[in-house]
């Protein structure tokens, strides 16, 4: 099984630059509205509920764990009470070209948007970037940049749930149509003579390999590979009993590389060899042919 492909130059020109990242707990000295206005893009997350205002608008409560994206030069305020504290993580970055257009499309006319992050996917990445920049260990720049680009991909592909509210989800949570199993089985039957792989089925379903395998097993109760084998063995029994093919011919018809491989697979699935299976069906009064191949 081989996975991979080419990456065009146009898709490598992401045009985004990380400036700084911070993560930690702040204790407030006074009670006031704290105003921020950065010349860069801001992506931040707080671990506690926090009253906020944006561009002097109405006050609202930003829930703990909610990620916010702010355009450059946007004024936003956070309420701080003396003696209170908040754990916040954020990054500052610049974007241009296609990346800038993608971020502008995410934010509303007021210059911001929010993300629900139930698994702390974005929060963990922001924290990791902060740790890399703090550590200054060999290669920290590359590691921080790698996580930064992954974070932008997570944000840019978040699913909209309301106007300018998105949900960040793992690949395993991508919704799959209920007919996935029937779609897969139909595809296997249409290519029963080929040496199908799980990767082939994942591509046909339009899902990543791990997402497909996890979701399919959850829906069907068996792995994709088990489905391939089951359908091939069902076809094998028809070819042996009804069409009168030999074991060797059946193996070739179903895409097995050798007669031995087919016989071993058949016995593992059915508990007896193809020859023994046909003989048993014939003795029960069926019209199956006598298979001359030596029993495996």
List the topology elements.
Blueprint (H helix, E strand, L loop, with lengths): L15 E12 L4 E5 L4 E6 L3 E5 L5 E3 L4 E4 L5 E5 L4 E11 L1 H10 L5 E5 L4 H15 L4 H17 L2 E4 L2 E3 L12 H11 L7 H8 L3 H12 L3 H18 L5 H7 L5 H12 L3 H10 L13
Parallel strand pairs: 9-11
Antiparallel strand pairs: 1-8, 2-7, 3-6, 3-8, 4-5, 4-7, 6-9, 10-11
Helix pairs in contact: 2-3, 4-7, 5-6, 7-9, 8-9
Number of helices: 10
Radius of gyration: 29 Å
β-sheet strand percentage: 15-25%
Structural class: alpha+beta
CATH topology grouping of the largest domain: Jelly Rolls
**Distance from first to last alpha carbon:** 28 Å
Contiguous low-pLDDT stretches (5 residues minimum) are: 172-176, 287-296
Overview of the molecule:
The protein has ten helices and eleven strands. By secondary structure, it is of the alpha+beta class. It folds into two domains: 14-169, Regulatory protein AraC (Jelly Rolls, Sandwich), CATH 2.60.120; 180-283, Arc Repressor Mutant, subunit A (Orthogonal Bundle). The strands form two sheets. A seven-stranded mixed β-sheet has the order 1-8-3-6-9-11-10. Strands 2-7-4-5 form a four-stranded antiparallel β-sheet, with no helix packed on it. A hairpin with a 5-residue loop joins strand 4 (50-54) and strand 5 (60-62). It is elongated.
């Amino acid at each position: 099984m081989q996975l991979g492909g080419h990456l065009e130059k146009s898709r490598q020109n992401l045009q985004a630059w990380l400036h700084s990242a911070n993560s930690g707990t702040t204790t407030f000295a006074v009670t006031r509205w704290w105003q921020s206005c950065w010349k860069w893009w801001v992506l931040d997350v707080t671990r506690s509920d926090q009253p906020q205002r944006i561009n002097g608008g109405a006050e609202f409560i930003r829930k703990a764990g909610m990620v916010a994206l702010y355009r450059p030069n946007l004024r936003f305020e956070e309420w701080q009470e003396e003696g209170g504290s908040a754990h916040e993580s954020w990054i500052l970055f610049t974007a241009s070209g296609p990346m800038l257009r993608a971020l502008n499309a995410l934010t509303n006319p007021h210059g911001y948007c929010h993300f629900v992050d139930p698994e702390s996917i974005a929060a963990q990445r922001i924290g990791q970037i902060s740790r890399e920049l703090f550590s200054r260990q060999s290669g920290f720049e590359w590691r921080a940049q790698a996580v930064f680009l992954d974070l932008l991909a997570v944000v840019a592909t978040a699913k909209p749930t309301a106007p300018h509210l998105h949900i960040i989800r793992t690949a395993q949570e991508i919704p799959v149509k209920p007919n996935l199993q029937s779609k897969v089985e139909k595809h296997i039957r249409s290519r029963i003579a080929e040496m199908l792989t799980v990767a082939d089925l994942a591509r046909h379903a339009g899902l990543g390999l791990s997402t497909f395998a996890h979701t399919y097993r959850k829906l069907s109760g068996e792995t994709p590979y088990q489905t391939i084998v089951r359908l091939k063995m069902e076809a094998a029994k028809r070819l042996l009993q009804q069409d009168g093919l030999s074991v060797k011919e059946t193996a070739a018809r179903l895409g097995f590389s050798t007669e031995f491989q087919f016989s071993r697979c058949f016995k593992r699935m059915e508990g007896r060899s193809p020859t023994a299976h046909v003989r048993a069906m014939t003795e029960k009064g069926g019209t199956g042919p006598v298979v001359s191949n030596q029993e495996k």
